[in-house]
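Technical note accompanying the year-one report. For the benefit of new consortium partners, we illustrate the data format agreed upon in the data management plan: each record pairs a sequence with a structure-token string. No post-processing was applied to the example shown here.
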Amino acid sequence: QVQLVESGGGLVQAGGSLRLSCAASGLTLSRYAMAWFRQAPGKEREFVAAISWSGGTTYYADSVKGRFTISRDNAKNTVYLQMNSLKPEDTAVYYCAADRLHSPATAQARVTWGDYWGQGTQVTVSS
């Protein structure tokens, strides 16, 4: 059974940092492109960042570019999202997703991106 489990969320002041982790089980992570998405209350889910199978290529939403960094450790079957200079508007539930077939470059535009999803981790940034 495939599972993606996010962790590392919490409450942080504006300007602070958090590191999210997404631990995968039941699949070989190196065969999947990975991405982070988020959903704030009353808003639609939005793309945050994506990373290629090997980790060599990354993609970011304009709203987080320069502040967030996505990375992966295929040996540990884990994907990370380092979030710096956090803003109140970053408050959301953050989800990781894995996709076997679709390029990480399409994660932002493709509605059906993601074969597997985690349950999410709450990030709250206070002003």
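Partners are asked to follow this layout when depositing records. The two ends are 40 Å apart (CA to CA).
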